[in-house]
Design brief:
heterodimer, A: alpha/beta, six-stranded mixed sheet, five-stranded antiparallel sheet, B: alpha/beta, D-Maltodextrin-Binding Protein, domain 2, 5 strands, 7% strand
């Protein structure tokens, strides 16, 4: 469970973190400006060991800037990042695995050669064959890196992030641009990594990815943290209702005024704490239910509720 | 060291798998050499070149001869070498003994002997200085090889690093425990090994057809090639230190290569050029590489003779490397 610094300075320990448990990484009041844009506005949080920690937010929210400051790639304008309690920890690069949002590799090197090259950078690289097998690279180890498909490329980049058997793994939008099948395969890989007790820090703008993978989340918008907690806890805190959705054209005109919200794809959404009562009301009023859907709130709903705009916008 | 070796080997593999680079390095230089050899195979026989030593006053016997260029020498050794290699047709001694030096293989020398002895003054005695004629291709080959090293060095390091920065390879390396020094060292080492190998192969293959004049030591030539290459590579690193725009890098590299191409005596000598131009050319690393290689190949110069070029290249390398190390950033600003 994440600890949050509500005012950026004073530290509040999360009730889910035991007193003896020290975070693997702490971010204190981080600020980054690019010319006239303040991309990150004093965010603070900490990540305990062994969790999958997500930074969820729309494009341009400041997720990548934040994670790159944590990775030591971008220098913050102010604030502090402590890895295992130490700022500028000299062991960080040897112990961290990093996968960027978009990275080219050496075009003329094969998958195996790229892995061998990166293995040479670390003091204790893992054996390559098990890594190739684990990341499902076994079918194309001699393929030039430039000729890999999107999914193959992401798996190679993940293998590079795992090559030093890292304590902490940073994944920046790891499934952006992948087809649904490749995304699911990638989630499976990340779940396996989580099961080994590694700490995973993940940025994403896919709510399903965050719900599927993350134990802890911060929701980021316009460079600020707007909510934090586990996905279940966040939804429980902010929503008591479930959503009953109907096709817009199925509703009589007099009922449309009573609807809470217009959802995507021409749907009308009714927030209710009792699905049974709502359905009885709808039947009583002769509303056709052929397009009816009942669903629980998602992180996208939460984001919409908190910011007034969708994660996809 | 393991990192440097791995990065060097990785870059070298990238080079030899890139067909475009291979074509540029192996096909173009021999092609230029062949064209030059063909174009300049017929000598211009209308002008005689007669040297005299010692003194500034040309012997009176030359006054009656038309179409003769008179070249004074203050160094006898240099003058004799020029006779041996047909760079002058005849050397007249102005010590009062009426003797001259000629190469029996030179047709011009035979004509000049007859002309001189046909004059009404005292007869001149000829002495033989045998040697091979220096063709233009012998003169130009160090320039072409050095030019190839310059292009390959500047673009091979400068352009490649800028591309790496643009497409995120450098960012990925920055995230790994790789020091900039190890990365840059590997880039230089890889390109140095490649270019020395390419130059040796191109030289040997071209020599097989054209039989170049090589009077000095191959080891010294290799030293000049290595030091010159390092100097050029260091210059390339300065260009590559921050840019992430390939078009801008391309323009900047061309801005560096063109003056060197014109002023570093690759294709023609600056002997008759204004002094300021010769002075300016001494600031260019290619000038020192070309002049040192030429001194070894066609003048038989030793290390002492080219020491000023070696020192100049070493100094430039140090300054360029220092600047590149100071300016280098993994990512563009």
């Amino acid at each position: 469970m994440a600890m949050l610094y509500t005012d950026g300075h004073s530290l509040q320990r999360s009730p889910f973190m035991s007193a003896s448990e020290s975070p693997i990484i702490e971010v204190r009041n981080l600020v980054k400006r690019f010319k006239h844009v303040e991309a990150v506005k004093g965010v603070s949080f900490s990540i305990p060991k062994g969790v999958c920690f997500g930074l969820l937010g729309p494009n341009g929210a400041g997720k990548t800037t934040t994670i790159e400051m944590m990775e030591g790639i971008t220098r913050p304008d102010s604030g502090e990042i402590l890895y295992k309690g130490t700022s500028n920890n000299p062991h960080f690069k040897q112990e961290a695995g990093i996968q960027f949002q978009s990275t080219s590799l050496m075009d003329y090197l094969t998958v195996r050669e790229v892995l061998e090259l990166f293995a040479s950078f670390y003091k204790k690289p893992v054996p390559l064959e098990p890594l190739i097998h684990r990341c499902h690279l076994g079918e194309f180890p001699d393929q030039p890196a430039a000729k890999l498909s999107g999914g193959q490329r992401q798996r190679l980049l993940l293998a590079l992030a795992l090559i030093n058997d890292p304590d902490i793994i940073f994944l920046d939008e790891p499934t952006t641009g992948l087809d649904p099948q490749s995304r699911r395969n990638f989630w499976k890989l990340i779940t396996e990594i989580k099961q080994q007790g590694k700490t995973v820090v993940l940025t994403t703008h896919y709510m399903d990815e965050a719900e599927q993978l993350c134990d802890q989340l911060i929701i980021v918008d316009r460079g600020q943290i707007i909510a934090e907690g586990s996905p279940e806890q966040l939804l429980k805190t902010h929503f008591e209702q479930v959503f009953v959705c109907l096709n817009k054209h199925d509703l009589p005109a007099h009922l449309q005024e009573q609807m809470v919200d217009e959802g995507p794809n021409g749907q009308w959404v009714i927030e209710t704490t009792s699905v049974e009562n709502t359905l009885q009301d709808l039947i009583r009023q002769g509303v056709p239910l052929s397009s009816l859907q009942v669903r629980t709130p998602t992180l996208d709903d939460l984001f919409l509720k908190l910011t007034g705009h969708s994660l996809r916008e | 060291m393991n990192q440097i070796t791995a990065l060097t080997w990785a870059r070298t593999k990238e080079y030899y798998r890139d067909k475009g680079s291979l074509l540029w390095s192996f096909v173009l230089p021999p092609l230029i050499i062949a064209v030059v050899a063909l174009a300049f195979s017929r000598e211009d026989g209308h002008l005689f070149k007669v040297g005299y030593y010692p003194g500034e006053q040309a012997p009176t016997v030359l006054n009656s001869l038309n179409y003769v260029q008179k070249v004074p020498f203050s160094n006898e050794e240099e003058a004799v070498r020029k006779v041996r290699h047909h760079q002058i047709d005849l050397l007249l001694y102005t010590d009062g003994n009426h003797r001259f030096l000629y190469n029996p293989d030179s047709h011009n020398a035979r004509v000049l002997q007859d002309l001189i002895n046909a004059s009404p003054t005292q007869a001149w005695q000829g002495e033989v200085a045998e040697g091979r004629r220096v063709r233009y291709v012998d003169w130009v080959i160090p320039g072409i090889l050095a030019m190839n090293m310059m292009f390959s060095g500047l673009f091979g390091v400068g352009y490649v690093i800028v591309r790496y920065r643009k497409n995120g390879v450098l960012k990925r390396l920055q995230a790994a425990p790789v020091s900039p020094a190890a990365f840059l060292c590997a880039q230089m080492l890889s390109r140095l090994i490649i270019m020395l190998a390419v130059s040796v192969i191109v030289y040997t293959a071209s020599d097989w057809f054209l039989d170049f004049l090589m009077l000095g030591s191959y080891l010294n030539l290799l030293l000049v090639a290595a030091l010159g290459n390092l100097c050029i590579l260091s210059l390339g690193l300065i260009v590559a230190s921050r840019l992430a725009n390939e078009e801008l890098a391309n323009g900047l590299l061309n801005f560096l290569t063109f003056p060197m191409l014109l002023l570093s005596e690759v294709w023609f000598s600056l002997d008759g050029a204004p002094e300021w131009m010769s002075d300016a050319s001494q600031l260019l690393p290619l000038t020192h590489m070309v002049q040192a290689a030429r001194a070894i190949m066609i003048e038989g110069g030793g290390l002492a003779d080219i020491s000023h070029h070696l020192i100049a290249m070493a100094l430039m390398t140090t300054v360029f490397l220092g600047l590149a190390a100071r300016l280098f950033k993994w990512r563009a600003d």
